[in-house]
Amino acid sequence: MNAFEIPVGDEQLPPPSEGELGQHSPLPWSEDQEGEVAYFIEDANGIVLCDVHLNTGGANSAFIMKAVNHHDELVAALSNLVDHSMPYLAEWEATEEEQRDFAAAQELLAKLEKIQS
Question: How far apart are CA 65 and CA 57, in angstroms?
Answer without folding.
Answer: 12
